């Protein structure tokens, strides 16, 4: 697990991949909120 800062809420979290810095990282809560939010990528 790697430490990261959520791009949405700014909270520190751990993710199962090494953040590369070119894409935003979200905590579990923000990720699930975004996943259900309309059409995206």
Descriptive overview:
With 41 residues, the protein is an alpha+beta fold. The protein has one domain (2-35). A hairpin with a 6-residue loop joins β1 and β2 (12-15). Strands 1-2 form a two-stranded antiparallel ribbon. The longest helix has 8 residues, at 28-35. The protein has one helix at residues 28-35; strands at residues 2-5, 12-15.
The tally of helices reads: 1
Radius of gyration: 10 Å
Q: Find the structural class using helix and strand composition.
A: alpha+beta
What gross morphology would you assign? globular
How much of the polypeptide forms β-strand, as a percent range? Answer: 15-25%
Low-confidence stretches: none
How many runs of DSSP E, i.e. beta strands? 2
The average pLDDT score comes to: 88
- Major sheet size, sense and barrel closure: 2 strands, antiparallel
The end-to-end span amounts to: 25 Å
């Amino acid at each position: 697990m790697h430490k990261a800062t959520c791009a949405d809420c700014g909270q520190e979290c751990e993710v199962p991949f090494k953040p590369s810095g070119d894409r935003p990282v979200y905590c579990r809560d923000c990720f699930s909120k975004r996943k259900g939010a309309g059409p995206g990528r």
